[in-house]
Amino acid sequence: MTYTPPKILSFEEFITEYGDNTRYELIDGELRDMEPTGPHEAVAGTIAGRIYVEIFHSQFNWTVPKTCLIKPPAAEATALRPDVIVLDQEQLSNEPLWQKEPIICNGSTIKLVAEVVSTNWQDDYARKVEEYAFLNIPEYWIVDFRGLGGLQFIGNPKQPTFTVCQLVNGVYEQHQYRLGDNILSNLLPNLKMKLNDVMPI
Q1: What does the angle CA 184 – CA 190 – CA 194 come to, to the nearest 5 degrees?
Q2: Which of 78, 146, 154, 181 could form a disulfide with 161 if both were Cys (CB 3.0 to 4.6 A apart)?
Q3: Exposure of 162 by Cβ count < 10 A (0-12 exposed, 13-18 middle, 19+ buried)?
Q4: What is the CB neighbour count within 10 angstroms for residue 194?
C-alpha cells in the first residue's frame, strides 16, 4: 500500500480553486473539509443571530458577514473560515483585500470568532486556539454541541460543551459551559444564552 501525501496548496491557489466554496479551509497548505451538516449549519446560524441581536441592542458598530476568510499574517498557506465572525466596521477600511474579497488580514478587525465543532475537532481545540490568540482576537467560542472533542478538552464523560476563550495577556483563558449553564461573555455583557438555546432540533 502506498501513501499519497495530500496536495499542498498556496493561499492564492486555494482562493482561486476554493475561495467561494464554504465547505473548505486551508491550514498549512492542506485542504480541510469542514464537513458541514444540517445541524451544524443550524447551530452556526442560531449563534450568528443571537450575536447580531446583541450588537443591534448595544448599538455596536460591528457586523456579522455571511462568509469570511481569515488570512493570518504569520501563516503563509493558511485561510481559516470561521463558522461565525464578528468584525469591527471601523477597521474594515484598513483591510487590504476586503473591497474585492471577503478576506480579513488584520486581527484588530475581528472582535469574536465562533467555531461549531465537527469531526475535525482537533483544529478547533488546538490549532485555532493558538492562531486566534496570536491574532489578538478578544473572544473565541468553541461550540461542541455533540460533545466530539477530546477528553482533555471537554472532560469525561463527554457531553455537549460551550467553551468561551477570553484573551488575557495574549493567552486564552477558557471557561466551559454545559447544558443549563448561563454563558458569560465579556464582549457581549448583556448576552442571555445557554447552550440549550442553540442546540439543533
Answers
A1: 45
A2: 154
A3: buried
A4: 15
Q: Is the pLDDT of residue 75 over 90?
A: no
Question: Rounded CA gap, 170 and 134, in Å?
Answer: 7
C-alpha 184/C-alpha 54 separation (Å) is: 13
Mean predicted confidence (pLDDT) in 116-129: 90
What cell numbers appear for 48 in the block?
450568528
Residue 2 placed within a domain? no
126-146 mean pLDDT: 95
Q: What pLDDT, on a 0 to 100 scale, did the predictor assign at position 139?
A: 98
Query: What is the tally of structural domains in the chain?
Result: 1
Distance CA 94, CA 83 (A): 23
- Rounded to an integer, what distance in angstroms lies between the CA atom of residue 52 and that of residue 64? 7
Show the domain range for 68. Answer: 11-198
ω into 157 cis (within 30 of 0): yes
What is the rounded distance in angstroms from the CA atom of residue 63 to the CA atom of residue 113? 12
Cell of 124: 478547533
Is residue 181 a part of any domain in this protein?
yes
Residue type for position 172: Y
Enter the C-alpha cell of residue 122.
482537533
Mean pLDDT of the region 34-41:
89
CA nearest neighbour of 165 among 109, 118, 110, 113: 113
In a domain, 20, yes or no: yes
5 inside domain: no
Write down the pTM of the prediction.
Answer: 0.92
Tell me the CATH number at 55: 3.90.1570.10
